[in-house]
Design goal:
Blueprint lengths: L4 H10 L2 H14 L5 H8 L2 H6 L1 H18 L14 H15 L8 H14 L6 H15 L6 H20 L7 H26 L6 H17 L10 H11 L11 H21 L9 H25 L6 H16 L4 H4 L2 H12 L8 H4 L1 H8 L11 H14 L4 H8 L6 H26 L4 H6 L9 H10 L6 H18 L1 H14 L3 H14 L13 H9 L9 H10 L10 H18 L5 H12 L8 H18 L6 H14 L5 H13 L10 H13 L9 H17 L10 H16 L4 H21 L5 H17 L1 H6 L3 H10 L8 H16 L3 H23 L6 H10 L1 H4 L25 H12 L7 H11 L1
InterPro entries: ARM-type_fold (IPR016024)
Organism: Tritrichomonas foetus
Protein name: Importin N-terminal domain-containing protein
Length: 949
Amino acid sequence: MEFNLEQVFTALLRGTNDQIREANDIILRAMQNPQFIFLLLSNLTEQLMQTNPTLYTQLQLAVLTNIRDKWTAVFKPDEPIFWTSENQQSIIMAILNALFTIPIERRSHYIAAIDFIVQKCFSDLSVIPEAMTILKHLIELYVPRSQSVFDSNTFLQVARVWFRARHKRSIYIEKKKLNGQIEPVDNELLNYVLNIIPMALGSFTQSRDACVILCNSIKIIKYSITYVSDFLANQTFQQLLTQILQIIPLPTSDENDDIIQVKIMIFKLIDFMDSSFLCKHMKVKTDIRISFANVYREQIVPSIIQLTIQMLNLNSNYELKLLTMNVFYQFLFYQVANTAIFTPDFIMNVLFKYARVEEDDVTQPLLNPDMYISQHMSNDLAEKPTSPRTYCSLIIDVAVNKLHLHEQLYQFLISPASDIFDFEAKLFLFKQYIKSVMKLEKNERKKLTKKAQKRRPPITPHIRPEEFQVILNSLNDPKPPFAQVTIILFLSSVLKYINPQLGFQLAQQIILTSDEPIIRYCGAKLFNNCSPDDDDEFPALENVTNLIHRVLEIIPIFKNHIPSDMISKICSTNTEHLTNFGCELITVLFDQAIVISSTDQTTCDTIFNNIFNIIAAYNDDDPMLVPMLDFCCSKTAALLVENPMFESTEKLYDLISLINQKLTHSYPSQITILNFFMQFWQNENDFILYAKQVCQMIYPLITGQDRILTNAPELVQMIISLTTTILEKGRDPDLSDNYSMGYGLFLASCLVQVFGDINDVFLQAAMSVIAESMNDVQNEGIKPDIFNIIAAMHVTAAYFVVNPQKMISVLNPPILEFLTGLVRKRDFTTYRELVIGFINLLNFTKMGYQQAYLTTAKLLPTLVEYKRIADSGVDEVEEEEEEAEEDENDENEGDDDDDDDEKDELITPFAVPFDTFDVITLFKEVSDQTGLFASLPPELQQKIMSILN
């Protein structure tokens, strides 16, 4: 370490870039030497502080950095020791000795170092005694200086470090023996804290330092409440607590922020004492704590209530108002001194006052609409940030549901308003009142018998018609936006129960006529609340495109989901009128997505989900699908050219895939967009992860009636190459998802069905999937990968059709047995899947594996039923028929515990050649060729004969 400290640190501060890098390297290398910190400490002299205060601070920071980087609390045998425990004690003592000898403004970096060391000690219980040594030496140094305000503050800051670490690491339950060693230190520190507080109480109105002492002392008391009990019984503590609480009603001004900060700490202490001593189940129960809890509840809380009410007429900052209302809510929640709080005077002068919007916030609905909604209209503590109004709302809920004061409250809520602020505040609370009374009624009905509950009429908002009409009419009167917001949200909470049709129409009118985003937002919430849950009951909409457009404009403004939900509600309704404006609506939505993508990198998934729902509402081959296809293809290409890294690319693939699967005939734009994608997918990462969408997009062009790809050999070769890549990389978790391999195999099966045996990789990939799953089941005890096995069996079935000899050559008896055991109704849940199973099993039978024939015979009734369902479009089998078939197939199903597991299915609704494969004829042929029909049980023979005839 042969270098000049002053030169190096000066270069670090004022040198050129090269000099700074060189100085930084020198310091970092020096910090790898355990002796470097002692060099730093020895240079931190009073002379240096006087002559070069900047360098003095730099050296302090270097000490702190070195400690944070190298300090080890627990020495492990297999790790090198940087500083021995003796070295560490020397470092600690050097810092503590310097702490009280330097000016107070120079002490923060040393306190930060002690803070870090203490936290490290608390990371392992075995080294907590090391931290106790720090505290003992701290006390020795402080005692002769205890009359100094500055030194008292330093003592409190270090003591706070200890108590905060104790608070974070609860040791009361972990080690009672260790706790017994620590408690004397806790109590000694707390005694000094209690001795310091009177020093500050006598001068805090004139001294900022005294205010800081009070804040630090209150923090220590708050931290220690969790685990220290003895001081709670200390009469000095209780007297000092009473004196501290007397600060609450003292006058304050904006200029005297220090006293406001003290009050804030007092209310935080009250909140912590509430949760510690008013709750039903105390975390730590001792006789002292139980006794103090009674004193707190019976003597201290009533005093806090009166002192706080006195404070309400004084000037307060926002945080103090928030904490004040939180205290009232806590007392009501814990049902403490309810009659002392909930008086008419409290309702009028506290609740209504703190529920009012501040005059300074009147413009916020227009300037910061999202912030205003989340902060000033919230009725839920879970919705951050909250405001004093939120607590007023919660107090209403407690008053109704715990105190049953709803009748008294109603009279106050409908009383005449003195001004627009009073009107809005009452309406805001009235909204919560409506919700709370309905909850009360619901809870009361739970006590009745079910029969008695059914005789009761539906629960409706507790408001008389004439009073509701007054509020409804007020919407037509000129009012500032903050009042309009509350009126609409109030109507939203009532109309959904008494007249949703009116709410539905009113919402559209509000959205279409207002230019203010926040009013349109409220209209969207009214729309959502009053929309029917059943899509078939969704009323017809007028001017829907403009309606959607005006809601889309406000989506970027609001972080929550209300506007998006409204659009989703419209776009997911499966009603006839939706398709009348589908093309126009898709245009609006797509344009909005393009605007969003050009301004920021946020996802447009919700918008594209809505477009998807609109397209899905059309019947297959609807004439309107063709212009939609052309539009979506052209817009998709333009969007990806403009923004190749578009966040919602997968959703674009979903749209093209959906339309392709809904059109029986092929169109030029399908080939155009596919060629575009082939150029767009520059590397395998671009398409393997989206194998599902790629497959759904391409296979309709392969298997469709037009077989349009037969006239595009170059494109077919590209598709074969793409499919091959998916199959080769589909198992790579870094490139694919759980479905990539399955959809790649399905796409390969379609290519084989139409173009024949065109690539050996297809069959190799299918057999690899089967072999891997068979190994997992037999050797690892893992469940079979049904999704990928069914996809692989699509390929094997295709090869049995186009090249049976090649297929037979790769099979062996264990594979035949394994696959036959998997073909069962539980896993092969569609007609196409069971056809695939039959093609494979009946060919296995030809190869001499007789069990495969028995399996197909037992499943033949299920195949016929699946065929009936597929032809009729019925979504599910009648329950009685299902139960009968399950009984018949018990032997085949086995006693597997996983019958209720949901199975992933290939989503490929478009027709493929397998759908028309005559598997019944194949069954007859195999029966005749093998003579195995005669070996079936007579009852099963009879059932099959009735099917075949």
